[in-house]
Amino acid sequence: MKNKDFYQLLKKNRRETNGFQYTVPAPGAYPYQWLWDSCFHAIILTHYKINDAKNEIVSLLSKQFENGMIPHIIYWDKKLPGSFPRIIWGKNHTSTITQPPMLAYAVWQIFQKDKDSLFVKKVYSNLYHFYRYLLTERDPHTNHLIGIMNPDESGEDNSPRFDFALNLPPNHTLKENTKKRMHLVKQNIECHFDAPFCMRNFFWVKDVPFNVIMVENLRLLVQLATSLGYSEDAKFFDEQREKIIEAMKKFMYEDDLFWSTFGEDYQKIKIKTWAIFAPLFAKILNQKQAQNLVEKHLLNPKEFWTEFPVPTTSLDEPSFDPSGYWRGPTWIGTNWFIYKGLQNYGFNSIAEEIKRSSVNLLQKSGFREYFNPQTGEGLGAMQFSWCGLVADMD
């Protein structure tokens, strides 16, 4: 597989509507624009055409809400063919929930390639208001953990991390899961997507990966603000970053692992998914903790070290399903997070193993949405743009 293949994949999935250029995750299944997908697409595109990466970000920011939130779906053209279900969100052209805040990371990577301060200045206000929204509306009690009000906001729609909050058993169908999540959308519409009220009354999870991604993106937002001379902003966002780290240690850490929590009392959701490795991405663990995590869990063949690692759910969980969407398959996106995290702690040989495995999956099964971690069989959507993240494993 050649590097140029990844660029050709994204070019095939490129669309232009009303003067905006964006990349769809997969033409047949996901014919619209998604928030964290486009951040990944921008990261990939920095290795090929920097202006394409910038266009990806600009299109996302064009639909930002007045309160600063950026929706997780933009329906540029509802007439596009595709199997994605028609969801009534309460808005005509976008969803009314968000997704993991990878924007600052994508903009920072663009900035590293061409040092274009004018582009950073152009989008900085959007970034400022998005991250301020998350720090306020999604943390109503000022306990410094960001909450989500629907599993879809995690980017991992049916992950077993959310079974308890949805009142679902470990083994259930995707149809049953989708029905619960769509009921949440209905409740969110009724409460006018008032995040503090909706979370308090219907679904309130403080998810580990979401908060880890927030921490790392705040670190890079600090650097972006500093590059523009916005020292007060830089100081503020750095302080918030430290507060989230401390809150994660206080409310999420137990038995040597970070767990997502549910509700006002921060009940820990002790389900082993790839999320236990997410803190590596933002260097939240110390070296000893990281070593223990890698040796005890990542390299454990009874948990996560499969033929094609890393499965999104541990093999010893009752909910594990090797073909069950986010309930077991290997995804290139989560492998990318783990790869970057391992590099942070000097586990370079293990990171290279994950990169090699990711490449092998693509060579064996093509650009698929996700893969059976035991057989390497390609599953889900075809021509899936995330696969290009292998180009950023360096």
UniProtKB/TrEMBL annotation:
One Pfam family here: MGH1-like_GH
Sorted UniProt keywords: Glycosidase, Hydrolase
One annotated GO molecular function: Glc3Man9GlcNAc2 oligosaccharide glucosidase activity
GO BP field: oligosaccharide metabolic process; protein N-linked glycosylation
Domain Mannosylglycerate hydrolase MGH1-like glycoside hydrolase: 30-386
Domain of life: Bacteria
Regions annotated as coiled coil: none
Family under the similarity heading: Belongs to the glycosyl hydrolase 63 family.
PANTHER family (UniProt xref): MANNOSYL-OLIGOSACCHARIDE GLUCOSIDASE
Protein name, entry field: Mannosylglycerate hydrolase MGH1-like glycoside hydrolase domain-containing protein
